[in-house]
Structure formats: C-alpha cells, structure tokens
Amino acid sequence: MTYRSPAFMVDNLLSAITDVANDVDEATNTSTLTNDERRKFIDGRQGVFGIYTATGVDAGVRVDTLAIPSPAANRLVIPSGHDFDTETFEVLHDDGLTLPSPTTASSAAVSGSGVIDRTLSSGNERYWGFQLSTSSARTYTCAGYWLGVYEQLSTAAAVQPGWQNGFVSQVIETEYPSGIAAVELAAPRRQFSLEVRDIDPSGSDYTILDSVLQARGRSFWYWPPDDTDEGPFLVRLASEPTRRQEFKAPQQGLRYKFAFDFVEDRL
After folding, report:
1. Domain 158-264 sits in CATH 2.40.30
2. What 3-state DSSP class applies to 82?
3. 3-state per-residue secondary structure call for 190-203
4. Which of 109, 110, 16 is nearest to 63 (CA)?
5. Tens digit of pLDDT for each residue in 155-172?
6. Where in the chain is the domain with CATH 2.60.120.260?
7. Tens digits of per-residue pLDDT, 104-137?
C-alpha cells in the first residue's frame, strides 16, 4: 500500500489489423479474419472479443499504426478476460509490413486472465506484432490490444489527498413495508476522483492533464495513486472535468487546479 504518482494512457495508436499469421516475423500470411473480426481487436471495447485460430507455433496478429509513433509507444495493455494464461506473449515491431527483422519490445509468460500491462523497451516503428508461443490449432480470444504512451505525473505534482477510490453499484431496489427487494444488474464498477493543484501551464504535468481533460467522449487507461489497486483500469470521465486558475496574483504567474471524476468502462 504505497503512493505513486497517477498515470494515464489516453490514446490507442493501433489503426489497422493487417493479418493473422503464424510466426508474425515471417512473410507467411494465414489470415482468415473478416474486417469486422479484425476490428474487434482494436475498437476499444472490452465486451467484444476478437478470436483467431493458430495453425502453427508463434501465432499472433500484425498491426499497422499508419505512422511511426511519436513519441515512441512505451506501453501495451490487454484487458482482462483473455485466454493467454501460461503462454509466452511477445511484442515485436519493425519498419516492414511482415516484420522481416523485428525488435522485441517485450517478452514474458502470462499468468492468469487478468489485465496484461507491459512496459515496452522500445517502440518507434510503424508495424507491430503480438505473438504467442502455442501449439497448432489453438484458438485465442482477447478483448483487444491497446498500444500507446504511458504518461505519469511528476513527483512534484500536488495530488490532493482526498481522492475517491470506490465502487458504483448497479442495483435496482424496491422498498416494501417489510423490507427492500434488490436486483444486482451487474457487478459494481470502480469509480475514482482526482484533484491536482498548483500546475504550471508550461510544464509536462499540465500537458498530461490537458489531454485527459479533452478525453470526454472516450475511454482511456488510468493507474490510480494507491498501488494497492494496481490497475490499470479502463475508465471514462463521469462528469465534465474542470481546470481553474487558482494563483492569487495572476499578473505575477498562473497556476491551475484540475479536477476529475472517473468511472470504470466495461463496454
């Protein structure tokens, strides 16, 4: 139970699944996926799973970001619910469509079906491969791949201590004279709040929080300040965020306070 500076990954850099292949760093293309099936891997929805069948070892998907990531991609997140348990999952990238001479940005065994959160050692090329060491005829499912830039607030950011880290219940209740009848529609979703003060508009923390401020209509990944709840959590803004100038003498300098409410997104 330790404090850490909160962090975000707002944008998913993946633009197009090019194909499914065995040995993604070889030219062989064994894709049988329709465009709709490919889209499920990169559409940002957790409730819709992409599925593909491996017909050989080291099967995976190849992805086109359409441009060289700038800044370089440094994080890959896969939502919970995948069936990659016990497999070695590799993240590769190259400047050629078929990944002829790829760089390995991450390689490690997967344990369980929870969120996969990988720090990437490199990530400044256009084409990517997500590969699993597998036997033949193995069918894989996952709720998508999120490739992006992990941005953490600096230790100087004045994160206020009263942040919220709880749950939103999804329950319908009807009260009767003898008691309350309740039906749980779905499992509770996480809810968070975050307030950060004294932010200099010329600094990197301002840039990070400004990008979150503008993410009202989409989901993004959030690493909360208490590492007991390791995360990351896919969240969206639950209400309009605020950015207010709070320096007492603005003629001498500007400082802003940002305030956010987040709710977990499971769609």
Report:
1. yes
2. coil
3. EEEEEEEEEECCCC
4. 16
5. 999 999 999 999 988 888
6. 7-150
7. 999 999 999 999 999 999 999 999 999 988 766 7
Query: CA quadruple 173, 194, 11, 26: dihedral positive or negative?
Result: negative
**How far is 11 from 148, CA to CA, in rounded Å?**
6
Q: What are phi and psi of 204, to 5 degrees?
A: -70, -30
In contact, 116 and 46? CB cutoff 8 Å: no
Answer for the pair 144, 79: CB distance below 8 angstroms, yes or no: yes
3-state secondary structure of 36: helix
Residues 6+ apart with CB under 8 A from 230: none
| Nearest alpha carbon to residue 150 among 111, 109, 117 | 117
DSSP 100: S
Instruction: Quote the CA–CA distance of 170 and 174 in Å, as a whole number.
Output: 14
**Residue 22 host element (H or E):** strand 16-22
Domain with CATH 2.40.30 in the chain: 158-264
CATH code for the structural domain at 7-150 = 2.60.120.260
Report pLDDT digits (tens) over 188-230: 899 999 999 999 999 999 999 999 999 998 999 999 999 888 8
Q: Determine the Cα–Cα distance for residues 157 and 197; give it in Å rounded to an integer.
A: 7
